[in-house]
Design the sequence.
């Protein structure tokens, strides 16, 4: 029994690993439905204006074509129903290049795609607003992000002896999950089933229902496996609903899979951020000013602002502070949540600026950070439920060999390579969101098994596995006695795999349900127990063959009285080729305090994934728009450079042993987002330490280091 | 993709005849480029002539003719097999390095040598069919000339086209003075010196090379040389693998005592064709192999370069890359 009680915290393999490596795991388009036909989207080739006309006659006559749907014949949909970005074929208006303007349904994918090429569209063009450089001065204060001001930044900055003022630029990035956004829609009467990778199962259900104008109960979302999302499958996009529209039109199941090229203007992006930083400190390294002013862009008719100032709000004790946003609507698809939203991009600016100021003071950047460690959350005065920044920095410094670093740059050279060390911190809020779960027990003889059901989602992060581990501990059953059913809106409603809330919300709901079922079984029993029995004992002793219960879990009532976050410290060693400017991150270390780590193996993978994207953000990733027409010239994974294996050296992860049950009963803080936060700054700081060159616009490609 | 006819041939002659009979037919070999282009509607052939069954994949010593003593590689040989063939590794490590610097392992396993020569540019305006592109659709203009052109040419471009040839393999073949053997429907074999195989865009950017419609690349001959131990392929790119060159350099040096007898230099990522750096080569002949001479040679070559709005860095990068490639070639061809 003692081993069984320790499943949480064990680095067990994914329970769905075999399904994945054998190809048996069913992703959205893997469902084989009889008579399925295929839909292919076609897109606008201008960024602003109106469709004058769409000629579809030739396409309709093409072999295999069943329907062509455009704004002329699409059913009326509720455009405010929760689908992000619109593009629901409801009008002639064009707001960005590559906006969906129609789709063809045909017997085969190839027939549908061919027919899209027979469609002739005429436009009434307008001057597109796609050049951020040109339009950023038109940015205005957003509706929902008010300036957060403390003290008097301008006076304190003016009087400061040690200060830096600099602008940090981050480019448009794309999520690029391996699985492109894809949907199979299948109507039975007035009910529709949508097989669709959705990070928030109930969110997808609600958005589809509301947009289609049917009750939620008539929409079922099925998404047991997701091939990555990184935020792009958090909101719902037009493909989800258009597949349903197409299926209705042809009265057959319809499969709609976006191509990789279509992904760049169909499912959101991380927008370009222009971040002006002003930091000042006293001679002995106490921060006196931290101003973080972000200018960015949003959709023409829909505001979304990535909260780049979030880290600046909570990381340091500083009397004079300003966090502000300005945003300009442009003819670019609406930005959306992208891994470490606001924190990854914001921490690049903040943690680079901290490094710059530390260098100006000729102070070790770790020492500088430690001097400005806030006792309480500076943004709201709340107590930390726990804060591990100091431990992350100190343990990381020791493990990384930080002591060997020289404060002056260009002190470490081997042949044509300049070697540098960099450090940067990060944080992400920890929250538990409402989730329900059902536990079903069955028994044959002495063999008791459990099935756990909830509408959670697994992005590939290991949700299935941690749910099984949680249930295993709470029920006293081995992991292989537990079946996990998630990714289906017909199951009890649950939070999404977004914003690092998934693990905390799912595991606590499952734990509650498992404790509840044990309590209920004990209540049923007339026996007296000296130690808490397992459900298996109880099922046997009460001679039950089946028993189930449901729990509706919420965060602890006093959780909001505290400020709860995951924290990290990132350490990078870079080798910069002094002749070619090519950079290799030879070693990377992420030290993370994220509360209870449910499974160190999947957690490590999560952190490594975040680190790799952070390295990509620092060195390679950028989506480039043609400033004349608004099309992306980076239009495939050959142009949009995610890091390759050869770009990544060793990555080590350390988790701080942390017990914090204030945010939730199990003390789980979440690691999905924090893994990328601070990474780009650590790399950029290391590049400065190696070369003496401070690059403030990402990515740091070879040309910027010549 | 658009409907097309699929034809398969088993002899060079029948392949050449099928191609000649249809001006809108294209060759299908490894398919790593043509199929992508068809899916994106960039290439719109109405017939594909599959030549995979032709016996054209042999790597063998050349026993007669002007290139006697050299090695012949088949037009249908796979890039990966060619790179790793013992005769190539031993005699032309420069070619091995260049091939392995290109694409990904999976693509190299599929892609053929002839196809590598004939692959199209990766200019995004060429790929995005709604954009102007004189190469794809003559007369529509060049989207990149005034657009995003960081990856584009600094040598030999025209107002019609600023695209670059994407190959790494071809940069090495240019430096190696390779000869392309092609055969048409008449059965006649032509030999095209590598420097004349690819074209500069001029007013006809739609034409990448001097291969005539109906001709098949049967083999590539690489003459014997004396610089196997002093050659190096350097590729500078935005990420360490699976990225096209910002600038690449194939460098080889044959010494004569302590001086350079002759140097061979070709650049990739800078022009519509592999750019043979003849100016630099001429300067280096007879000079001492010093960093200073390398630098002077590189600067001399780069003087002819003309940058576009976003690729000015390629001039300094190209200069440095030439020096570094020559230095590494002198050091025995290792980094």
Sequence:
């Amino acid at each position: 029994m003692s081993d069984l009680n320790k499943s949480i915290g064990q680095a067990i393999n994914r329970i769905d690993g075999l399904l994945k490596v054998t190809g048996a795991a069913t992703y959205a388009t893997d469902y084989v439905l009889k008579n399925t036909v295929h839909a292919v989207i076609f897109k606008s080739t201008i960024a602003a204006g109106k469709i004058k006309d769409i000629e579809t006659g030739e396409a309709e006559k093409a072999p295999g074509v069943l329907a062509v749907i455009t704004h002329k014949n699409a059913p009326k949909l509720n455009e405010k129903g929760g689908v992000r970005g619109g593009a629901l074929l409801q009008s002639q208006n064009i707001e960005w290049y590559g906006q969906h303007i129609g789709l063809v349904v045909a017997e085969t994918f190839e027939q549908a795609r061919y027919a899209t090429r027979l469609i002739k569209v005429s436009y009434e063009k307008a001057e597109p607003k796609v050049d951020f450089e040109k339009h950023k001065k038109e940015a205005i204060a957003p509706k929902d992000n008010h300036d957060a001001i403390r003290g008097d930044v301008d006076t304190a900055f003016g009087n400061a002896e040690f200060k830096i003022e600099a602008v940090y630029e981050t480019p448009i990035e794309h999520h690029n999950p391996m699985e492109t956004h894809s949907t199979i829609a299948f109507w039975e009467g007035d009910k529709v089933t949508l097989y669709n990778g959705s990070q928030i199962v109930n969110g997808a259900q609600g958005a589809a229902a509301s947009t289609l104008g049917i009750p939620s109960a008539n929409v079922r979302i099925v998404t047991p496996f997701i091939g990555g999302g990184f935020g792009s499958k958090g909101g719902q996009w037009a493909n989800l609903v258009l597949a349903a529209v197409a299926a209705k039109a042809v009265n057959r199941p319809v499969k709609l899979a976006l191509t990789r090229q279509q992904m760049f203007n169909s499912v959101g992006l991380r927008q370009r951020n222009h971040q002006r930083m002003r930091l000042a400190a006293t001679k002995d390294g106490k921060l006196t000013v931290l101003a973080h002013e972000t200018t960015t862009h949003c959709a023409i008719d829909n505001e979304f602002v990535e909260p780049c100032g979030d880290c600046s709000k909570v990381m340091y004790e500083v009397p004079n502070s300003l966090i502000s946003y300005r945003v300009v609507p442009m003819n670019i698809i609406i930005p959306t949540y992208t891994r470490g939203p606001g924190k990854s991009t914001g921490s690049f600016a903040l943690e680079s600026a901290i490094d710059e100021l530390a260098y100006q003071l000729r102070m070790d950047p770790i020492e500088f950070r430690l001097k400005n460690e806030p006792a309480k959350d500076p943004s709201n005065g709340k107590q930390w439920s726990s804060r591990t920044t100091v431990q992350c920095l100190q343990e990381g410094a020791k493990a990384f060999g930080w002591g060997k670093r020289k404060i002056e740059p260009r002190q470490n050279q081997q042949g044509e390579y300049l070697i540098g060390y960099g450090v940067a911190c990060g944080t992400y809020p920890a929250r538990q969101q409402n989730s329900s779960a059902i536990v079903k027990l069955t028994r044959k003889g002495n063999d008791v098994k459990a099935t756990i059901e909830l509408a959670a989602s697994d992005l590939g992060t290991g949700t299935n596995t941690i749910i099984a581990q949680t249930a295993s501990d709470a029920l006293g059953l081995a992991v292989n006695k537990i079946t996990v059913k998630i990714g289906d809106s017909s199951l009890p409603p649950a939070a999404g795999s977004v914003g690092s809330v998934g693990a905390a919300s799912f595991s606590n709901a499952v734990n509650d349900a498992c404790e509840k079922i044990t309590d209920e079984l004990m209540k049923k029993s007339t026996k007296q127990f000296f130690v808490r029995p397992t459900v298996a004992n109880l099922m046997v002793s009460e001679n039950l063959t089946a028993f189930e219960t449901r729990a509706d879990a919420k965060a602890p009532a006093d959780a909001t009285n505290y400020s709860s976050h995951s924290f990290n410290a990132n350490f990078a060693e870079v080798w910069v080729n002094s002749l070619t400017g090519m950079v290799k991150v030879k070693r990377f270390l992420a030290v993370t305090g994220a509360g209870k780590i449910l499974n160190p193996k999947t957690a490590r993978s999560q952190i490594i994934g975040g680190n790799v994207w952070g390295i990509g953000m620092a060195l390679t990733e950028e989506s480039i728009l043609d400033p004349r027409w608004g099309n992306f010239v980076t239009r495939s994974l050959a142009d949009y450079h995610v890091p390759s294996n050869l770009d990544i050296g060793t990555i080590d992860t350390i988790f701080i042993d942390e017990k914090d049950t204030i945010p939730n009963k199990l003390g789980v803080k979440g690691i999905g987002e924090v893994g990328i936060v601070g990474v780009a700054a650590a790399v950029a700081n290391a590049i400065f330490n190696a070369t003496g060159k401070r690059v403030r616009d990402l990515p740091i490609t070879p040309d910027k280091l010549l | 993709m658009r409907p097309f006819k699929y034809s398969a041939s088993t002899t060079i002659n029948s392949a050449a005849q099928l191609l000649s009979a249809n001006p809108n037919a294209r060759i299908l070999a490894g398919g790593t480029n043509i199929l992508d282009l068809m899916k994106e509607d960039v290439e719109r052939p109405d017939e594909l002539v599959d030549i995979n069954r032709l016996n054209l994949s042999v790597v063998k010593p050349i026993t007669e003719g002007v290139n006697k003593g050299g090695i012949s590689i088949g037009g249908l040989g796979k890039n990966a097999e060619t790179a790793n063939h013992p005769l190539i590794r031993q005699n032309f490590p420069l070619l091995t390095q260049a091939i392995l610097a290109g694409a990904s392992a999976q693509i190299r396993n599929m892609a053929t040598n002839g196809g590598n020569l004939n692959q199209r540019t990766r200019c995004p305006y060429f790929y995005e069919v709604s954009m102007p592109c004189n190469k794809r659709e003559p007369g529509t203009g060049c989207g990149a000339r005034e657009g995003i052109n960081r990856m584009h040419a600094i040598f030999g471009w025209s107002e019609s086209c600023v695209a670059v040839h994407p190959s790494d393999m071809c940069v090495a073949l240019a430096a190696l003075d390779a000869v392309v053997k092609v055969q048409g429907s008449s059965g006649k074999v032509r030999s095209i010196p590598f420097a004349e195989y690819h074209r500069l865009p001029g007013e006809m950017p739609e034409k990448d090379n001097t291969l005539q419609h109906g001709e098949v690349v049967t083999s590539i001959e690489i003459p014997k040389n004396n610089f196997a131990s002093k050659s190096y392929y350097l590729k500078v790119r935005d990420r360490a693998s699976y990225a096209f060159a910002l600038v690449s350099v194939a460098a080889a040096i044959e010494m004569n005592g302590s001086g350079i007898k002759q140097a061979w230099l070709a650049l990739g990522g800078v022009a519509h064709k592999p750019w043979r750096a003849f100016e630099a080569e001429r300067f280096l002949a007879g000079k001492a192999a010093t960093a200073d001479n390398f630098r002077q040679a590189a600067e001399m070559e780069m003087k002819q370069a003309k940058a576009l709005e976003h690729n000015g860095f390629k001039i300094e990068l190209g200069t440095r890359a030439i020096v570094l490639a020559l230095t590494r070639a002198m050091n025995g061809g290792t980094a």
